[in-house]
Amino acid sequence: MKRIAIASDDVEIRSLLEQANDEDIILQLVDGRKFMLSAVDDFDIEVARTRQNKKLMALLDARAKQTETIPLAEVKQRLGITDSLG
Predict the structure, then answer these.
(1) Secondary structure class of 26 (helix, strand, coil)
(2) pTM summary value
(3) How confident is the model at residue 59 (pLDDT cuts 50, 70, 90)?
């Protein structure tokens, strides 16, 4: 992720940033290319960094494809958990 410092005295850019603080903005060039301007917080940055972790994303993809489940009763039995209410 790249960060670029901008001059705070540019009225047009400042106006766009203020608008993006309230809602996402799509910027479209004359040639049709589009870009999104959006306010970012620390969580958004952490999510972006996490998505760049190829090993983690591969693990999550593999886990999402798993269809086999273990019934709760079997999990309790394997872990030696007994219901002791009362």
Answers:
(1) strand
(2) 0.46
(3) very high
